[in-house]
Amino acid sequence: MTDVMHNFELYQPGTVADAQAILKDSDDPWIIAGGKDSLGWFKDRVKQPSEVVDIAGIEELQGIREEDDGGLWIGALTTLTEIGASDVIKNRFPALSTAADHVASPQIRNAGTIGGNVSQDTRCGYYRDGFPCYRAGGNTCYANTPTAMNREHALFEASRCVAVTPSDTAPALAALEATFVIQGDGDRRDVSADDFFIGPDIDITRMTSLERGDILLGIRIPGKWAGSNQYFEKVSDRNVWDFALVNIAMAASMDGGTVSDVSMVCGGVQCTPRHLSEVEDLMRGESPGSNLETLVKRVAASGAQPLNFNHFKVPMMRNLAARAVRSLAAG
Amino acid sequence: MENYGPYDPTLDYAPGPATKEIAVESGKVQSWKPLHMSRRNFLRSVVCSGTVIAGSGYLFTTLAPSRADARSVERLVSLNVNGRTRRLDVPPNETLATTLRYRLGLTGTKIGCNQAECGACTVMANGATIYSCSTLTHRVRDKEIVTVEGIASDDGTLHPVQQAFMDEIAPQCGFCTPGQVVAAVALLNMNPNPTIEEARMGLSGNVCRCGAYDHYLRGTMKAAERL
Ligand SMILES: Cc1cc2nc3c(=O)[nH]c(=O)nc-3n(C[C@H](O)[C@H](O)[C@H](O)COP(=O)(O)OP(=O)(O)OC[C@H]3O[C@@H](n4cnc5c(N)ncnc54)[C@H](O)[C@@H]3O)c2cc1C
Ligand code: SF4
Ligand code: FES
Ligand code: FES
Description:
The complex is a heterodimer.
Chain A: E1 9-11, H1 16-25, E2 29-32, H2 38-43, E3 51-54, E4 64-66, E5 72-75, H3 80-85, H4 87-92, H5 94-101, H6 106-111, H7 114-119, H8 125-128, H9 169-175, E6 179-183, E7 188-192, H10 193-196, E8 215-221, E9 229-235, E10 246-255, E11 258-267, E12 274-275, H11 277-283, H12 290-300, H13 313-330
Parallel strand pairs in A: 1-3, 2-3
Antiparallel strand pairs in A: 4-5, 5-8, 6-7, 6-8, 9-10, 10-11, 11-12
Chain B: E1 20-23, E2 29-32, H1 38-55, E3 76-81, E4 84-89, H2 96-103, E5 122-125, E6 128-131, E7 144-146, H3 160-167, H4 177-190, H5 196-202, H6 213-226
Parallel strand pairs in B: 3-7
Antiparallel strand pairs in B: 1-2, 3-4, 5-6, 5-7
Helix pairs in contact in B: 3-6
Residues 122, 124, 126-127, 131, 133-135, 141-144, 153, 161-163 of chain A line the site of iron/sulfur cluster.
């Protein structure tokens, strides 16, 4: 049920330094960028931070820059619309622009930022509705029971919590081996995608390695996969608004007719974007075709532990991996 | 400096029919411009006064806590809506949809889901469509807002999109129509010659519970031809 939001103090700092000072002084701060995840929490009255720091006015966090190694720097405040429309991203990293184009709806993409998209919280319905589950600091999981509604939940690496990553851009960025640049209190650190997204075994109350007071400055995509063969596909109930049941991102370099290197990542099946390393190992040195597709299907979802209502994600994952392979044969 | 509180019928907020004169209690005569439909104005005044009494705790907080920290935003904002700048007193937690509807009386902008999932509240900010229900008013202080009331020209001539929607009998119940109009106008501003697929994408952030999607789509294509 949505309601009018609670009262909060609102800050609109103009620089990262000001934002940091405010975050540091605050007992209960919350950053908003596009606000598309945050305002939902506030309206549901599930999260009620007393101090909200709106970072949208910070110039330093805007814009896309080309880097010397053929890669890109993407400021955290770049909107998903800007990412989808950017020619340089389309040319070098089409998996990312396609992913951005598949988020939510045009109005949400106009406001939603890439920083917010990768930092957003999970969409487990119980948690979002304010149930006192493990992730909310309680001591049970409402989604992992025989009768629970868990068709959207995890197949892999569950640890008490069975929630999944909701982001469409996260698998693309993980496949492209992006690093996340974070400004902490005093220090600035570069974090790889594998360390940025964290599972419940590391910390059950958050989805990323961002700690209170941290600001994500931007995302650096290395030149490694620039211009390679890339693929992104998302399956959701409706084409607009709905989160991915499963999505997949792939970057592959070809040598003649064979795959010389490949990076493939699935979203919506685990708390973090899941590298399909068995598929990657299988594909290297092989040529795409129906034989490879059959083999890839066999290993794509190996180790899956479905819950009561999400078995359908297993064939969905297999088929998406096979379709990614097929895109190489076509191109 | 003028300071606008809750909706005040003596103020001229939107282009519309001719100015009328009304006598207010103090005996002074003030003029006001009725919005397009008088029944709606009547309903709004009833709804509004109810809201003000029942909901003043959060909607139009006059007893809001004063700013504890001088670095936080001031409540007074200048908001540019449909080409006119207003000074408004807006609490930090107010959404643009609330400000437009209940402070400025621009009730063309609808609130359907109030959670970024239907598009009834679509307005333009610097030309890009946004969901006003899920945007803090303070966020758009420095932007130019256009609502459905600002789409027709000042002399009342309809925008080609509005005319085409009428010709194609696009609205059924009409609740989603303001959002559809704004989304279609924004699309055609950006891309005056969309393919039908592009138009479908452009309108994809607007739910029509009556399912009149094809009518809105035909209307948008017809408007593109006439532009
Ligand atoms: C109806 C609906 C449908 C959606 N569908 C999809 C979908 O299909 N796919 C998808 O991927 N997403 C979807 N989203 C989720 C999401 O809201 C958007 O993708 C958007 O990109 C989030 O960005 P934002 O800037 O609006 O986030 P915000 O709400 O501003 O921020 C989200 C979180 O990230 C933190 N944060 C943001 N920026 C920074 C920063 N620079 N540094 C540190 N922390 C930061 C905030 O504190 C907050 O916790 C949907 C949302 C809605 C409401
Ligand atoms: S899946 Fe995670 S977020 Fe959902 S109810 Fe269980 S513990 Fe909470
Ligand atoms: S009311 Fe804003 S999107 Fe539904
Ligand atoms: S016409 Fe009724 S909702 Fe669209």
